[in-house]
Write a structure and sequence with these properties.
alpha/beta; six-stranded parallel β-sheet; binds thiamine diphosphate
Amino acid sequence: MTARDSSSASPSITVGELAARFLEACGVSAAFGVISIHNMPILDAFHVRQRIRFVSARGEAGACNMADAYARVTGTLGVCVTSTGTGCGNAAGAMVEALTAGTPLLHLTGQIESEYLDRDLGYIHEHPAQLAMLQSVGKAAFRIRNPETALATLREAARLAFTPPCGPVSIEIPIDIQAMRLPLPDDLQPLPLAPVIPAPREVLALADRLATARRPLLWLGGGARGASAAVQRFVKMGWAVVSSVQGRGIVPEDHPSTLGSYNLQKPAEAFYASCDAMLVVGSRLRSNETLRYKLRLPSRIYRIDANALAHNRGYASDYFVQGDAQHTLDALADALEGRMAIDPALAADVGRARAEASAVVDATLGPYVALKDALASVAQAQAGGKLSWVRDITLSNTMWGNRAPNLDHPRAGVHALGGGIGQGLAMAIGTAIADATHGGGRRTVALVGDGGFMLNVGELACAVQEKADLVVLLMNDSRYGVIKNIQDDLYGSRHAYVELHTPKFADFCASLGAPHFKLADPAQSAEVLTKAFATRGPVIVEVDMDAWGPFAVKFAGPPLKKD
Ligand SMILES: Cc1ncc(C[n+]2csc(CCOP(=O)(O)OP(=O)(O)O)c2C)c(N)n1
């Protein structure tokens, strides 16, 4: 097929512009990437049209993490644009994270000219199996082969990205195709999304099983993030609630009916033993949340998931209903309201379990309790509790950041779900940009270790350039702390490859024009955090962990079942 030329009567646009216009129709207000000869028709259209804010990341990994976080906090499509070959490959790790987290993301990448494609000619930027790589690091990948099929491909990619299990979808567009012209389509709207409606018979069967429960518990995962309103109906009926880390804030975490994400401490497990039914909604009951599937859950487990394959994964389910979380919970509440006799003591028992679980966490932290508590109080005082809480993989996050401070909204938490270090800073930039473009009025705060921070530190320059409004809590122990702890536990304290040459962060930040505060004393936490919250743009608060001293308990990898 050949593209129609620009002399036709209707105005003609390039495929690059078509992509830009389609994204606008999807409600995308910011996209992230690195410019290259192999994506310039797309980025030129962004620039000319000025409808989408394009953030020039310093690397494709960061760009993809930014787009991922943008999608998580806005609920709209995340978009990253990369170059062919190495640029595209640089995004692979971040694509894996988006896949793990179920983020609806569109990754647009270039390809070499169609004429030379798939011929292994050593053409500049050629990656012969790029499409195969994209298929394996994301949910799906397509190639646009001519202008006539471009819109259909864009529409289908976006539809797939938003179809549970949601995930990142890539489209590669050879550079000659990006520049080809086609008539401007009349309709650029994305395809409608159809939620998975549960079978009414199955909802009633589930209701029959739950109607007699006296101490029912809802376990909410990331798949239930759109179901806050329906979940509230269960809370009103008297159910108890607990969430995975990805499900934080579906019920505001200061609500007395929820354990929050204190989901695997001993007091939580003891509480589960007192519950006679658990309804798991949109959660994979992942290894890190369940002591590698050994956490003792209530004896009867029921499950709702939009993904039919969730049935019996990780834990056996006594009954399973396939359906969108909001629709299914609403239908279930219709069938259960006024029909249950829930133990009135349940609410008080949740509160007790939560307080005990939180005390268990605090007892591990030693001096770092001061940081955790100061963050909660400063966030309340300076931002009305409206925090976007972004975390990298670091000891402090595993030990407390995954559970505290309280989050008030299902989209207020962003973390590296798949466990890869080095993504937190870029995710915080994507979060802050999302807040700026969507007027969220939240304060972005990121928790990162020095090891993870250095992995993608170039993005700090991007943050300064973009005036990304965020506070980074940089936990500096000058090493890969958790790995060192594991070496103590399992490798005879042979501390190999964990001591890191670390920059003088004050000088480094000064060179970039980023305000920097050193926090050398736990007693100054509230004062320094208050100053940081009052400063605009990217602000670094470096916690000098050598001065603070160790945690009370040495954390050495994800907790496992001990008895
Ligand atoms: C991309 C990636 N590479 C390597 C690892 C292995 N790893 C897990 S934690 C960690 C150390 C992180 O160090 P830092 O960010 O300083 O945090 P700390 O453990 O000191 O709190 C490493 C290297 C990983 N999880 N992800």
